[in-house]
C-alpha cells in the first residue's frame, strides 16, 4: 500500500527563495543544440520535477546545473545559470566546488566496489571532511533511511546490497558532503515499486534540508513528489533539426490539473509522449 504524503500549499513564487536563476540557457553538443532558450528559477527546499518525452533534453538540463556536461567533449552552452547569484560558468569558479555543493544521483545505482562505510566516506575524505567521520557516515545513512539495515555490516561490500538499498546508499553518499542541492536523474527508474516508494518518501522527508531537482518519466511520481514541475518538449526546425524546449513551468498541481499550454495537457494526460 502506498503511503501518501500531504502536500502543503506553495506560497506565492515571489516569496520563495531562489536557488538557481536560469536565463536563456542553450546547450549544444558539437553543432547540434540539445536545448534552446530555457529560462526558469529553482527554489529552496522544494522538489522540482523535470518531465517530458525522451530526447527533450531533461538530463542535459540538470547536468548543466552542476557543470557535469563540462566533461563531455564538444559540449558548450550559452546563457547564464546563477546559483545564489553567482554565475556557475564564470572562469574563476571551480567546477569541482560546484559539484560538491550541487550533488547528483544517477539513474542506475552506482556504488563503488568498496565497503558500505567507504562508499559514504569517500567524498568526505576527498574533500578533507575527515573529522567525526563515523558520525558523518552514520548521519548520512540515517538520513537516507538505510542505517538500521546496514549498521551491523558497514564493512560489507556495497555491491551486496539490493538495488533499492544501493540507490539509497548513493543518496547517502551524495548528502554526506552536505550539499545544498541534489540533482536526481530518474533515480527510481531501475527500481521495483517498494524501493521506488522508499525513494519518494526520502525526498519528502529530506527537502526540509536540501533542494531537489528530479528528472522523471513517471507522471504519477512527479505528481506525488514534486512541488514544482517543468515540462520540456521537442521542437523541430525546417531542416529536420530537433531540440528541447521548456514549454511550461509552474506548481505541480497546476501543471497536472490546469496547465496553460495545450502541449502540456496532451503530455500529462497521455495523448502523446
How would you concisely characterize the structure shown here?
This protein has 10 helices and 10 strands.
Q: Can you characterise this structure?
A:
By secondary structure, this protein is an alpha/beta fold. The chain has one domain (16-268): 3-Layer(aba) Sandwich (Rossmann fold), CATH 3.40.50. Helices cover 32% and strands 27% of the residues. The protein contains 10 helices and 10 strands. The chain has helices at residues 58-64, 95-101, 116-126, 133-143, 147-150, 163-176, 193-206, 219-225, 252-257, 262-268, and strands spanning 18-29, 32-43, 47-51, 75-83, 86-87, 102-105, 181-185, 211-215, 228-236, 242-251. The chain has a 6-stranded mixed beta sheet, sandwiched between helices. A hairpin with a 2-residue loop joins strand 1 (18-29) and strand 2. Helix 3 packs across helix 4 (133-143), helix 4 crosses helix 6 (163-176) and helix 6 runs parallel beside helix 7. The longest helix is centred in the middle third of the chain and has 14 residues, at 163-176. The chain is globular and about 60 Å long. The relative contact order is 0.18. The model is unreliable at 1-5 (pLDDT under 50).
Amino acid at each position: 500500500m502506498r503511503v501518501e504524503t500531504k502536500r502543503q500549499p506553495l506560497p506565492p513564487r515571489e516569496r520563495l527563495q531562489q536557488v538557481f536563476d536560469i536565463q536563456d540557457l542553450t546547450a549544444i553538443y558539437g553543432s547540434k543544440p540539445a536545448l534552446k532558450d530555457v529560462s526558469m528559477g529553482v527554489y529552496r527546499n522544494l522538489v522540482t520535477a523535470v518531465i517530458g518525452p525522451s530526447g527533450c533534453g531533461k538530463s542535459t538540463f540538470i547536468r548543466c546545473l552542476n557543470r557535469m556536461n563540462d566533461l563531455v567533449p564538444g559540449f558548450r552552452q550559452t546563457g547564464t545559470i546563477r546559483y545564489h547569484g553567482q554565475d556557475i560558468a564564470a572562469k574563476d569558479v571551480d567546477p569541482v566546488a560546484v559539484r560538491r555543493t550541487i550533488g547528483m544521483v544517477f539513474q542506475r545505482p552506482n556504488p563503488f566496489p568498496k565497503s558500505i562505510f567507504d562508499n559514504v566516506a569517500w567524498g568526505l575524505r576527498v574533500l578533507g571532511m575527515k573529522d567525526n567521520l563515523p558520525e558523518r557516515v552514520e548521519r548520512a545513512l540515517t538520513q537516507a533511511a538505510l542505517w538500521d539495515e546496514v549498521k551491523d555490516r558497514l564493512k560489507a561490500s556495497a555491491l551486496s546490497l539490493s538495488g533499492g538499498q544501493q540507490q539509497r546508499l548513493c543518496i547517502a553518499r551524495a548528502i554526506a558532503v552536505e550539499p545544498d542541492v541534489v540533482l536526481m536523474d530518474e533515480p527510481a527508474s531501475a527500481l521495483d515499486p517498494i524501493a521506488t516508494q522508499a525513494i519518494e518518501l526520502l525526498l519528502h522527508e529530506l527537502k526540509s534540508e536540501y533542494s531537489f531537482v528530479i528528472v522523471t518519466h513517471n507522471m504519477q511520481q512527479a505528481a506525488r513528489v514534486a512541488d514544482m514541475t517543468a515540462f520540456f518538449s521537442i521542437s523541430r526546425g525546417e531542416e529536420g533539426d530537433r531540440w528541447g524546449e521548456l514549454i511550461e513551468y509552474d506548481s505541480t498541481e497546476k501543471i497536472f490539473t490546469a496547465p496553460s499550454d495545450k502541449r502540456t495537457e496532451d503530455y500529462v494526460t497521455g495523448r502523446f509522449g
